């Protein structure tokens, strides 16, 4: 993720190692990665708002994955990751900020916070898995498995806007230049001007018209 002058990247732990984060002010030179206290697993997503970075991730314990959240004000020193949902198995996959709240998602559930420190109990929205979230057009937009898209303006009422059961997952959603783009892992994308009405999935092609067949993991805007 990027602020005006800082790029931040999170990584995954393996074989019992801690997750890590690093940062750069130019995208070329990167600081030495620092480990995230108490997170022995994957760091999935990072956002920045109200003077702090909020990162979400998960790690396996006793054969189950549990969601964790950590924060930092300088991208160097991170708080000990806190477990979200004491007995709820949820991989936290993405976090964003909008309408005065941080929102983290995963496993068809959401949790919210006004300060990034105290979080609500996990609430189930769907039995589809959630992978990405963005705040755009005065609403939160969530995407996940089966090309499912949910929206909510108040984080209380959620409406399913799109779904194609049996298809690839929507793994990333982005808002840029007045348009919302949702990306499927198999190289298809959907477009929306308002988050409510969506185009049918279209396949990505290169400059020569060749279809992109590589498995995709995310989408970003370059300024």
TrEMBL record:
Domain of life: Bacteria
The protein's name in its UniProt record: Exo-alpha-sialidase
Protein source organism: Bacteroides caccae
């Amino acid at each position: 993720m990027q602020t005006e002058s800082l790029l931040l990247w999170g990584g995954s732990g393996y074989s019992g190692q801690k997750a890590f984060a690093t940062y750069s002010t130019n995208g070329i030179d990167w600081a030495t990665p620092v480990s995230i206290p108490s997170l022995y697993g994957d760091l999935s997503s990072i956002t920045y708002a109200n003077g702090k970075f909020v990162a979400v991730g998960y790690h396996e314990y006793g054969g189950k994955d549990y969601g964790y959240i950590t924060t930092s004000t300088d991208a160097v020193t991170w708080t000990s990751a806190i477990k979200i949902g004491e007995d709820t198995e949820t991989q936290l996959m993405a976090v964003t900020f909008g309408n005065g709240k941080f929102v983290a998602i995963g496993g068809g559930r959401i949790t919210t916070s006004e300060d990034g420190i105290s979080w609500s109990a996990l609430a189930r929205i769907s039995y589809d898995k959630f992978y990405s979230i963005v705040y755009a057009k005065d609403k939160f937009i969530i995407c996940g498995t089966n090309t499912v898209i949910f929206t909510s303006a108040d984080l209380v009422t959620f409406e399913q806007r799109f779904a194609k059961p049996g298809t690839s997952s929507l793994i990333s959603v982005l808002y840029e230049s007045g348009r919302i783009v949702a990306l499927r892992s198999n190289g298809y994308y959907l477009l929306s001007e308002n988050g409510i009405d969506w185009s049918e999935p279209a396949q990505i092609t290169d400059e020569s018209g060749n279809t992109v067949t590589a498995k995709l993991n995310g989408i970003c805007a370059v300024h």
